[in-house]
Specification:
By secondary structure, this protein is an alpha/beta fold. The protein contains ten helices and five strands. The radius of gyration is 20 Å and the shape is elongated.
């Protein structure tokens, strides 16, 4: 089973490369160069398609609309919600930087998904009875540094969480393993009531995966990226557009792959 899962992890990483619009553009341009002698018309069409993709990637309203469809499935939870019947929260990794730069510094570095961490701390401070369970191993394809859980331990400790309130899972490399490996931790009863803390755009797949794995979880989305009034068509940015396209394509590909694999 572990060998099969390793293959799935590798495949997911490769598919994620295709979720980046600029990678697709490069691939199309390479194909155009490869066929330009034998099929010049096809080569010109590929170049034109590449140019169209570059232009469209800057229209932020399109990925915003797709992101809103994902995020609107789990609305924001009011801060004054009564959580006394909940055992704790499961916080998904993905908010801490990894790799060379992270390994150079002692303090943990947060990325654009930082609210997964910061809101978890705020939530615990408002509800100190909640157990904080963080799940995240080494997500990089060829990563060899400390796991994300190691960096999360430092972050939560610095934020004042006592060791008695914190549980870490450090082997998972994707959302499916988050659900399965965390459920197998000693002292974890997945049938109790848990909050699931992750980015709003990631919540539909995460929630379905955890429920399929036998968890009794309630969504607690954070890190919202858009609203019902999406970016106007006049808002154009190649940098922002490419980033949002990568985000939404990554998630849509993930949802499709998890459905095919029977994980949701």
């Amino acid at each position: 089973m572990r060998a099969t899962e390793s293959t799935m992890v590798l495949l997911s990483k490769l598919l994620n490369l295709l979720a980046q619009p600029l990678n697709l553009v490069v691939l199309l341009l390479v194909l155009a160069l490869f066929v330009r002698q034998r099929k010049p018309r096809t080569s010109r069409n590929l170049v034109a398609l590449s140019l169209a993709m570059i232009v469209l990637s800057g229209v932020t309203a399109i990925p915003d609309a797709l992101l809103y469809r994902l995020e609107s499935q789990s609305p924001e939870v009011p801060a004054n919600t009564d959580l006394r019947t909940y055992t704790g929260m499961v916080v998904l990794g993905g908010a801490l930087e990894s790799g060379r730069v992270s390994a150079h510094f002692q303090h943990p570095l947060l990325n654009s998904g930082a609210e997964r961490m910061t809101e978890a701390v705020a939530l615990w401070r408002r509800n100190p009875h909640l157990r904080v369970v963080f799940t995240g191993g080494e997500g990089a394809m060829f990563g060899s540094g400390p796991s994300e859980s190691d960096r999360a331990r430092r972050f939560f400790t610095d934020m004042g969480l006592p060791a008695s309130a914190l549980t870490l899972e450090d082997r998972s490399q994707n959302t499916y393993e988050n659900a399965v490996f965390t459920r197998a931790l000693p002292g974890i009863d997945a049938q109790q009531r848990w909050l699931l803390v992750t980015s709003a755009w990631h919540m539909p797949r995460s929630l379905a995966t955890f429920q399929k794995a036998g968890w009794n979880v309630t969504p607690y989305p954070v890190d919202f990226r858009t609203t019902a009034d999406w970016s106007p068509l006049s808002e154009y940015s190649l940098r922002d557009g490419a980033e949002r396209w990568e985000l939404v394509l990554h998630e849509l590909i993930g949802i499709a792959a998890y459905r095919l694999a029977g994980r949701i």
